[in-house]
Each structure stands twice: as C-alpha cells, then as structure tokens.
Design a protein that fits this description.
The complex is a heterotrimer of chains A (183), B (650) and C (133). Chain A is an all-alpha fold and 183 residues long. In chain A, 74% of the residues lie in helices and 0% in strands. Chain A folds into two domains: 7-82 and 104-123, NADH-ubiquinone/plastoquinone oxidoreductase chain 6, subunit NuoJ (Four Helix Bundle (Hemerythrin (Met), subunit A)), CATH 1.20.120; 125-165. In chain A, helix 1 (3-24) packs antiparallel against helix 2 and helix 2 (28-48) runs antiparallel to helix 3 (52-76). Chain B starts with a helix and ends with a helix. Chain B folds into two domains: 74-90 and 154-567, no CATH class; 575-649. In chain B, helix 4 runs parallel beside helix 16 (343-371). Classes of the chains: A mainly alpha (183), B mainly alpha (650), C mainly alpha (133). The interface between B and C is small, with 8 and 9 residues.
C-alpha cells in the first residue's frame, strides 16, 4: 500500500458515498450538491492518476457548468424546498439491475487485475495531451465541435416553441394560406 | 396413277389449308356494327367471301384429287423428334379419305352459302342483325379445316390436333346464338362430354405411339402390338370415338347441341364432328380387327345407341331434336358396321348420311325460317306453301328411312347385309352374337326410323295448318339452292355403288379379311332386301294409319306411357346428372370450401397472426420511459452476464 | 499503485447510476444519475490510460475529454427537453409522460392543407370503374 493507493481508496470511498446519497436523498437540491462532492472526488482521483488536464476540465465543466445547470433546472421546475416523498418508485428492480451491473463489473475488474501493481507515470501536462488531440484525434475533435453546435441549436429550438412553427396569427393571412395550399 | 397424284401432290396441304387460312383471316375481321342494315356492311361481305371461297377452294381441291387418287399415297416430314419418338407432319391419302374430304367440303360449302341468308334479319324479324357474322363464318371455316386435317392426316398427333380444334369450334358455334338461354349450357355440355371421351382418345394415341415408337399412322398400323396393349389402346380410342360420334353413353350432348344455329347442326351432324369418330375407327381399322374385344364393346354400344336414338326420336316435338336423335341412331348403324368388321359399309353409310342429313337439316332450317318455331305441334300443312322444301324433305326422309332407290336404302342395306353375314355365317373378327345383336337392332331400327320419319313428314307438311297468321313460303334463293343441290346426292349417291371408280376408291383401304368375309360389292340385291323393306313399310304404315284416324293429333300418342320416357331419352340425362354432374359439383364445392377455409384460411390466418403479433409487439414497444430503460439495462446486463459466463466456460 | 481500487470505484459508481436511472421519477434526478454513469466510464478511461500500454499515448485521457464534452452537450439538450416538458405538463415525472399525442386544436392553415390532402387521397384512392367479366 502506497500513499497513492490510500489516496485513491479514500477518494473512491467519498465518491461512492456521495453517489449513494445522490441516488437516495429525498431533497432535490441536496442531490445536486452531493453530485458536486462526487464529481470533485473523481477529479481528485484523476489528479492522483496523473491526468491533470482531465481533472481541471472535470472541475471546470462538470462542477462549474453541468451541476450549475442542473441546479438551475431544479429551480426552474419549482422543486419544493425540503424533502419530497414522490421522488422514487418501488426500488427492487432498480436495485436488482443496478446492483447486478455494478457488482458484476466489479467482480470482472477484480478478477482481471487482482492485486497487481503498476508504476504511475510521471505527472502529465496539457502540453502532451494537446499534442495528441490536435495530431492524432483532430478529426473526432472537429466532429465533436459540430455535435456541440447541433446540441446548441437543438436546445434553442426546444426551448423556444415559437420558432419554426406557424402560429395562428401568421397562418390567418392569405399569403400563408396560399403557401399552405401549394404545399 | 400415283404419277398422277405426283403432279397434284402440292395440292394436298391446300385441302385443309384453304379453309384454315380463310378461318384465320376471318377471325381478324371486326364484328359488324350493331346498327348496320342487313348485309350492307363490309365486314360481313368480306366474311361471306372468305368463308365461301375457303369451302369452295377445298371442294375444288378435293374434286381434283378425287379424279386422280385410287390407291393410298402418303408423304410426311418430321415435325418434332421427342427423344426417339417421331412426330411427323404429313398426309395419308387414299380413296376413302378423298371421298370423305369431298363430302366435308361440299357440306361446308352448302352451309356457308346457306348461312348467308339464314343468319340475316327477315322482313318480319325485329331482332337485331346478327352482328357476329364474321367470327361465325370464320369458325365454320376453321371447323371444316379441322375436319379435313383429321381426314387427310398421316399422323396420329396431327389427327388429334384437328380433333381438338373441332371440339373448340363446336363449342363456339353451338353457343353462337346468345339470345337463347340454353345455348351456353348446351355448348359447355357438348364441350365437357366430348372432352371426357377425348381424354381416352389422347391416352389411346399415346399408348399406340409410344409402343410403336412413332405416331405415323402407317407405322402404327404395321407395328406388331401385344394383344393386351392393342385392346387397351382400342378401348381408349373408343372412348374418344363415343364422345365425338355421340355414342352411348356419351351421346347426351348431341340433342342439346340443337341450341346452335340450324346450319351448324347440319355441319356437325352431316360432315364434321360426328363423322370424325366413325372415320377415325375406319382409318385405324386394321388395329381394331386385331382387337375383337374392343369391337365387341363397340358392337354392344352400337346396338344400344341405334335403338336408343331411334326410340328417342319417336317422341320429340322439336323438329331439330327428331333429326338429332336420328343422327345418333344412324351413327349407331355405322359403328355397328364397324363392329361386325365392315368399315366399307360404315363409310358408305357415312357418305350417304352426310348427304341426306345435311339436306334434312337445311330443309328443316328453311321450315323454321318460314314458321319461326322449331316445334312440330305448331307446324302442319306446309306442303302447299313450300313445295321445294317439301319435296327435298321427302327425298331426305326417304333416304333416312331407306326407301329404294334413294341413297340411304343402299348404304343401310349394306350395313344390314354385313351384320347378317356376321350373324349367320360368323364372318368378321367379332363373335357371332355381336352380329346377331347388330343385325336385330338394325332391323328393328329400320321400322322405328320409318315410323318417326313418316311422323315428321306428316306432322310438318300435311294436315291442317296450325299456325294462324304466318304465310309460309319457300326460302330465298341462297337457302333454296344448297338444299336443292344436296338433294341430288341424297337421292342418287346409292347408285354410285354400281359405279366402278367409286367402288374402287371406297374399297381402297379395305383389308384382306374384310374382302374375303364380306365380298367386294357395295350393293346387295337379293332376297335379304325384302325383310328391311317389309319392316320399312310396316313402320311407315303404322304411323300413317295413326295419322289417318286423326290428322290433327300427334301419332306419338300411341306410345302411351312410354312417350315421356322416350321424349326424355330414357332419362339418361337425369342418370348422367345424378352420377356425374352432381358428384362433380359436390366435389367442386368441397374443393372450394377446402380452398377457402384451408388454404385461404392458412394464408389469411398467417396474415392475421402476423398483424396481431405486430400489434402486440407495438404495444410492448410503446412503454413509458421507466419500463423501457429497465428493459434496455436489464438486457444489457443479461448479455454481459452471458458473455462473462461463456468467457469463463471457454 | 493498485489499479483495482479506481476500477472498483468506477464499477460501483456505474451501478449506482443504473440504480438511480431506474429508481428516480424526477427527470432532473434521472439526468444526475446519467452523469454518475458517464463519470464512472471516465474514471475507467483515465485509469486504463495509466495501466494499459496503448498504441497512441494518452488515448484514454483524450477519450475522457471527449466524453466530458458529450456530457455537456447531452445535459444541455436534456435540460431543454425537461423544461419543455415542465412547461407543457407542469410536471417532470418521467412515468407520467403520455405515449399517445392528445388531439390538439389544429390551426386553420394546417387544417386546410390536411383537408386538401385527404380530398386528393380520396379521389386518387378510388379504384377504376368496376371491371365486369
């Protein structure tokens, strides 16, 4: 057991514990906050595993953006302050499937790696990662940018119901009627 | 003389070829426009020209060949070679073939000319002009061509082709008059009944041809068959012959076929259809000679048919049905002559029958044309109004009954003499009792024939008129001349039996056995003639006596309780209906039900099952998000589990 | 370093995510559980980057970055859908989402087009004159 192992074990315990709270708490807002703890613990894991850039991106995007968005959504949907009783449905199939997949994966991974040991590489830098992204993975990177654009447009269209649909006022005009007839 | 035919050989294919071409071209003509004035439109004129030209051309060719041919000639080319089984395309021409071809062509010409006036709107007729004249004339031409193919064919397959074309032509022509409700049913009946026999004919030909390795008639006749094969083949052929020649038990179609136009009846009865069966047996007679069982069966059937037809003819009221049943009876004479082993007598009777039956039908057509009905109970006293028709009918009926010296007397006497020789001297290939059967049936038939012929004459032309309004008159020239011309051979053909060239031609295909058994003379004048003559006088005298007592009443009333039985031909139609038609219909219904419930049910059921299954699956798919997500994730888990277990196991 | 520790952590987090997706009724909580699953995968990718010798160096970390980007896009669209659902039905419970569309009053222009289409379909769909045998 090295220090890194102890660190990983502690951070993993924090992450799993926070995850348990995320899926079991009865307070909507607290679920978001536990998610922050879980994601932060994972960012710590990344740091230990010498993936500095991923760790900071995790903190920036997940903790800084995604969770904030989720909390906004919680508020916009007028979630009640305090505990709610109708958040869950009967849990045994979920427990069966979730437990099965989680424990099954764990058994597989334990079986695969046992108590083996690897040397951690030297701490990486954004320099090395950026070289890979812009040299070997530049095409998927560009495709991802298109995907982000599409998601952006999609989100806007979804949240603005008056875009792209003929409203009653427009269709009442004769020009729109002719257009409809031609179609 | 064969060098004589040498120059005329290219003419032989023209014999069926001319009417065939006329018929095929005629089928291309458009029907006459519906509103056209009678005989004014071009299609009808072209159709008339084609039909008459085809028949006249065939007649000229036949006459040209008749002067040259006296012993068999044949020529053929290979048509198809079916794995060593050769089918040839060729002719086999002998004196008999040319004589029959001449008769066919002559009757066809008479019918074509007669039809011009018969199928035409009369002055008092308000029905529509027959606008389907072009196909009608073309079908007659095809019919003639098919019969001529049968007559001259040198190959069994070619003969079968002509045989089948006749079947379809008879179907089309019987159903020609679409205004008659019974015509389509009669056509279907004729087609189906003859088809039943044709199946046997086809199988017989196949048996003969496959056993001999060739379908050429000369090869088939020369092939030494085993007795079993030959008997089976001859019996199968007889089925086809019984169908086409209206022999018991396949005779039921012929009286119903009277629904067709009268010229068609003349054509079917005199020249083409019913003669084909007798001619086919005569053509293949050397085979039948070696199969006495088949000839015995033929003899029994002939005796039954002869008497059945004669008795059925006594009680009919429809003039055409009387003639139809008389045809059945006369064909019975021919098959009887074949059965006792004298095809020459049969062919002589066939020729004279062709003449007088065509004459009788065309004369009856003239009567029907003038009176507007076919029922004799509504005729009577026509002698004064229609003298030409009357005298022609007298000639025809005299020939039918066998009054000397008209043609029927000589030919029927030839048949009876052959039967007598078979009965008394044991001549011919069949057992002696067959000769007795045919002879006695023939003698009884003479009396009955005389009775109904006299009745027909008296009911139609004598006594008081039973039609109040009409003014019967002789038909127009186009109908009168064919009748008059046909009266000549009907009266005089029998005397040709004394003429050398005629005898030479008709005996051309005769076998040695026939010549030794029955002699080489067509006519038999002797004491034996007196017996039929006495029976003839008795039959005619009884009918006349009955009519004298009450000239308005039907002599058939003396038949008493037998009259309805005879009128319905011993209820054989009912028997056929009960034994064949109804079981077939039941079977068809069962098959249809099975098809609808079983096969269709299976198909539609699988369709319904697929639709239902699809609906069920669609319902399963329309799950809310929780269930769908649970399903997807559980599925993924199960697949992963399976992969892991397989990985562990292997 | 014992790689089994982060691997087991990731496996347990993934199981928790699955459990959360199936258990929760609130759509926002479902999205949070999905984030848990995505992060579990990210952890596995980063751990694998250190333990497995790959052809290209740091492929696991690059993939982790891509997954983060995908998660950001996903959460944007997902939240837009959730908000739209809330606007329409005043509820974000996933098992109350109707599967069949309720008949809604159709605007006049659309109705006219629909009527035209159905009329054209009727005239075009009628078979030719009945054929008699």
């Amino acid at each position: 057991m090295t220090g890194a192992d102890l660190l990983l074990l502690a951070l993993g315990a924090v992450a799993v514990g926070a995850g348990v709270l995320v899926v079991s708490t009865k307070h909507l807002v607290r679920a978001g906050l536990y998610l922050v703890v879980c994601l932060g613990a994972l960012a710590g894991d990344y740091l230990v595993l010498t993936a500095e850039l991923v760790a900071w991106v995790q903190v920036l995007i997940y903790v800084g953006a995604v969770v904030v968005l989720l909390l906004f959504a919680v508020m916009l949907t007028r979630a009640p302050i305090g505990a709610s009783d109708d958040l869950d449905r009967p849990g045994w199939p979920a427990a069966l499937i979730g437990g099965g997949s989680g424990l099954g994966l764990a058994v597989l991974l334990v079986d695969a790696f046992r108590w083996s040991r690897v040397e951690l590489p030297t701490a990486g830098t954004a320099d090395r990662l950026g070289e890979q992204v812009f040299r070997s993975w530049v095409l998927p990177f560009e495709v991802l940018s298109v995907l982000l654009l599409a998601a952006l447009v999609g989100a806007i269209v979804l949240s603005r119901p008056d875009i792209g649909r003929p409203g009653p006022v427009r269709s009442a005009t004769p020009a729109a009627g002719d257009e409809g007839g031609r179609a | 003389m064969s060098e004589g035919i040498g120059r005329l050989a290219p003419l032989v294919p023209l014999l069926p070829g001319l009417p065939l071409a006329a018929g095929l071209v005629g089928l291309l003509l458009p029907p006459s426009p519906r509103g056209a004035a009678t005989g004014e439109d071009r299609a009808r004129r072209v159709a008339i020209a084609l039909g008459v030209a085809g028949a006249a051309g065939a007649l000229l060719v036949a006459l040209a060949l008749l002067t040259r041919v006296d012993h068999p000639v044949e020529a053929s080319t290979t048509w198809v070679d079916l794995g060593g089984l050769r089918v040839t395309l060729g002719y086999r021409l002998d004196g008999v073939a040319v004589l029959v071809a001449t008769a066919v062509a002559a009757v066809a010409l008479a019918v074509q000319v007669y039809s011009i006036a018969y199928l035409k709107r009369g002055p008092h007729d308000d029905v529509e002009v027959d606008h389907r004249y072009p196909p009608y004339a073309a079908q007659i031409s095809l019919f003639t061509a098919a019969m001529l193919v049968v007559v001259v064919s040198g190959d069994l397959i070619l003969l079968l082709v002509g045989w089948e074309v006749m079947g379809i032509c008879s179907y089309l022509l019987i159903a020609h008059d679409r205004r008659l409700p019974e015509a389509p049913a009669a056509a279907v009946k004729a087609f189906l009944v003859t088809r039943v026999g044709d199946v046997g004919f086809l199988l017989g030909i196949a048996l003969l041809g496959v056993s001999a390795g060739s379908f050429k008639i000369a090869d088939v006749l020369a092939h030494p068959y085993s007795t079993g094969t030959l008997t089976a083949a001859c019996l199968l052929l007889l089925a086809g012959v019984a169908g086409k020649s209206a022999q018991f038990p396949l005779h039921t179609w012929l009286p119903d076929a009277m629904a067709g136009p009268t010229p068609i009846s003349a054509l079917i009865h005199a020249a083409t259809m019913v003669a084909a069966g007798v001619y086919a047996v005569a053509r293949l007679f050397p085979l039948f000679e070696r199969a006495p069982v088949a000839l015995t069966v033929l003899g029994v059937l002939a005796a039954i048919t002869l008497l059945l037809g004669a008795f059925a003819a006594t009680a009919q009221d429809d003039i055409k049905r009387v003639l139809a049943w008389s045809t059945v009876s006369q064909i019975g004479y021919m098959t009887g002559a074949l059965a006792v082993g004298s095809p020459t007598a049969a062919l002589f009777h066939l020729l004279s029958h062709a003449a007088f039956k065509a004459l009788l039908f065309l004369a009856a057509g003239a009567v029907i044309h003038a009176v507007g009905t076919t029922l004799m109970s509504r005729m009577g006293g026509l002698r004064r109004g229609m003298p030409v028709t009357f005298w022609c009918t007298v000639v025809g009926l005299g020939a039918l009954a066998g009054v000397p010296p008209l043609s029927g007397f000589w030919s029927k006497d030839g048949v009876l003499a052959a039967a007598e020789a078979a009965a008394l001297d044991g001549a011919g290939p069949t057992p002696q009792w067959v000769g007795w059967l045919v002879w006695l049936a023939g003698l009884l038939g003479v009396a009955v024939t005389a009775w109904y012929a006299t009745r027909l004459l008296l009911r139609t032309f004598f006594g008081a008129t039973r039609i109040p309004l009409a003014d019967p008159h002789d038909p127009p020239a186009l109908m009168r001349w064919p009748v008059l011309v046909l009266a000549v051979p009907a009266a005089l053909l029998g005397l040709a039996g004394f003429w050398g060239p005629f005898i030479g031609r008709i005996f051309a295909p005769a076998t040695e056995a026939e010549l030794t058994d029955f002699g080489d003379s067509l006519t038999h004048l002797g004491a034996a003639v007196l017996l039929p003559l006495a029976l003839l006088l008795a039959g005619a005298g009884v009918a006349w006596a009955g009519w004298r007592r009450d000239s308005a009443a039907d002599p058939a009333r003396f038949l008493g309780p037998l009259r309805p039985v005879f009128a319905r031909a011993f209820r054989l139609d009912d028997v056929q209906h009960a034994l064949v038609v109804r079981p077939t219909n039941a079977l068809a219904r069962a098959a249809r039900t099975g098809d609808e419930l079983g096969v269709d049910g299976l198909v539609e059921g699988s369709g319904h099952a697929a639709v239902g299954l699809g609906g069920g699956l669609a319902t399963l798919h329309r799950a809310a998000l929780p269930r769908a997500a649970a399903g997807v994730l559980a599925g993924a888990l199960l697949i992963g589990l399976a992969v892991a277990l397989i990985g562990v196991a292997s | 370093m014992r790689p089994v520790v982060p691997y087991v952590t990731a496996a347990l987090l993934f199981g928790l995510g699955v459990f959360g997706v199936l258990r929760r009724r609130n759509a926002v909580l479902v999205l949070m559980a999905v984030e848990l699953m995505l992060n579990a995968v990210n952890l596995i990718l980063v751990t694998a980057d250190t333990t497995v010798r790959a052809q290209l160096p740091h492929a696991g970390q690059v993939f982790a970055l891509f997954v983060i980007v995908l998660a950001a896009a996903e959460i944007g669209v997902g939240l837009a859908i959730v908000l739209q659902l809330y606007r329409l039905r005043a509820s974000v419970a996933v098992d109350e989402v109707p599967l069949t569309e309720a008949p809604t009053p159709v605007p006049a222009g659309v109705a006219g087009v629909a009527a035209d289409r159905s009329a054209a379909g009727t005239t075009g769909g009628v078979d030719g004159p009945e054929v008699r045998g």
